[in-house]
Amino acid sequence: MASPVPLSTPTRQRAPVARRVWRPAAAGLAAALGGLGLAELTAAWIAPGASPVLTVGALVIDIVPAAVKELVIGLFGTADKIVLIVTIVLVLLLLAALAGILESRRPPFGRLLVVLIGAIALFAALSRSSASTLDAVPAVVAMGAAAIALTFLTTRLPRPQPPAEAAPGPDRRRFLVYTGITAGIGLLALAGGQLSAAATRAADAARALFTLPAASVRQAAIPAGASLDVAGITPLITPNADFYRIDTALSVPRIDPTTWRLKITGMVENEIEIDFAELLALPLEESTTTLACVSNYVGGDLIGNATWLGYPIRKLLARAGPTSGADMVLSTSQDGFTAGTPIEALTDGRNAILAVGMNGEPLPLEHGYPVRMVVPGLYGYVSATKWVVELKLTRFDQEQGYWTPRGWSELGPVKLSSRIDVPRQGTSVPAGSVVIAGVAWSQHVGVSAVAVQIDDGPWRDATLADAISVDTWRQWAYTWNDASAGDHRLKVRATDAAGLVQTSATADVAPNGATGLHEISVSVSG
Ligand SMILES: Nc1nc2c(c(=O)[nH]1)N[C@H]1C(S)=C(S)[C@@H](COP(=O)(O)O)O[C@H]1N2
Ligand SMILES: [Mo]
User: Which ligand is nearest to the CA of 294?
Assistant: First the structure.
């Protein structure tokens, strides 16, 4: 007897594969291309170290088991990196296609997948040891752009057409156009990013090729006693790669030194102009100078010490002949940043220079290549113009440097300060004898003493390393002999050569530099 109901319900007419799979997958692919392209372009411009593909690659290298690494190297030899990048891109495209299909059926799971991939890229970018906050931008751009594009495209997937209509309907054509445009933007951005990255590499290669002339005036050898033998103390000279970087330049200016010119203008008897070759032919002088940022909070690390090679600014100014009444040099960077420096600080005999070299190499691109200013004793924002192209003699009552109308003082002498580097804040140290050490600076005056306070105890004199000059920081150390188990607070305080004791009164970094004493807490284990 026939069953009154069919044993199986007739299968619903299935939508064609194109509609269920290929178009949503294409939407996902286009969205991923758009996001990736914009991210790579952003990375090339503002965060060269944070290309999502490369940082994810580095992350993969870090977490993949050694056996797999050896297998890949064994199979592909020196092409291993390319294989890695191709694999990452393929996996990304596969996941992107999946995200498209997911989003078309179960929104917002496709977008969630995109966010997950973006989060991995973000983690990869920020987990590098040299990561800065800017490095987060490309991954966030990728995530945002891809999620938006995915939503946009999947909500425009063509609706089913009546079977009779054979020709592509308006929906389908529109979807194809949008998908093509999204993918096209991505490919163009990718190409732009590659071009920009190649230009940076070319500028850096040109920089690496040129050799600095020897110094005509070498500075006296740095005394051996200027560096204390304490594990973990800040090195006396900051390696270029570790030197803090602060500027308003989203994208590092790439200046061709053969076209670089410096103009000296304004209140001068004769305006002069000098090109790079002329500058290098002048007798260059070597000087070690500490550079500090006004935004460095007490105990912070926006400070570094380098041996610079350059030409004294006072000699160039003398050639131009400032007219009476001029009291400021407004220096301008190729990218428009300006700093207002008192003429006094440039002509009083200190090592205020137009620097071309930093620790034995041409200035790194991000530190001002080919030429920057370095003025001992003044915060960078009023003196250390990178990529400098013009010095205009003027008056403080007529012009302002970049930061002055933005809430920072027109004058910015570096304040007396000191910092504890070891032990590190919040760490645990064994009881007994604990070495406390760090750096102190009072630029252009010199540090004469450093003292350390443990909890509420008396101030005890630290040992000072030899000074390089009054214009550099000075290392100090104190041996805490009877460190007892428990939590302790350590404080440091410097005194300058003029007898000024570093104040414990705290001041914010704005408008002209932080004050207060650096204090850390450590726990001593018994
Ligand atoms: N062109 C340019 N130069 C600049 C700046 C800038 O924003 N643009 N910032 C200044 C500031 S605030 C500081 S602290 C120093 C930092 O120099 P560094 O990045 O080489 O450490 O550069 C100075 N020179
Ligand atoms: Mo700064």
Answer: 2
Residue 110, Cβ neighbours under 10 Å: how many?
26
> Which residues does residue 287 pair with via DSSP β-bridges, in sequence order?
308
Nearest atom (ligand 1) to Cα of 334: 1
Pocket of ligand 1 (CB under 6 A): 243-249, 291, 293, 333, 335, 337, 367, 380-381, 384-387
Q: From atom 18 of ligand 1, which residue's Cα is the shortest distance away? A: 245
Which tens digits make up the pLDDT trace of 123-142? 999 987 777 888 999 999 99
SS3 170: helix
Q: How many angstroms separate the alpha carbon of residue 264 from the centre of ligand 2?
A: 24
What pLDDT does residue 73 have? 80
Give Cα 48 to chain centroid, integer Å: 9
Q: How far is CA 24 from CA 27, 153, 175, 176, 393, in A?
A: 5, 8, 10, 11, 63
CA of 470 to the centre of ligand 2 (A): 21
| pTM given for the model | 0.78
Model pLDDT for residues 406-457, shown as the tens digit of each residue: 999 999 999 999 999 999 999 999 999 999 999 999 999 999 999 999 999 9
Q: What is the pLDDT of residue 2?
A: 46
Q: What are the structural domains of the chain? A: 15-159+169-204 (no CATH), 229-406 (3.90.420.10), 417-525 (2.60.40.650)
Neighbours of ion ligand 2 (CB under 5 A): 246, 293, 380-381
Q: How far apart are CA 461 and CA 450, in angstroms?
A: 6
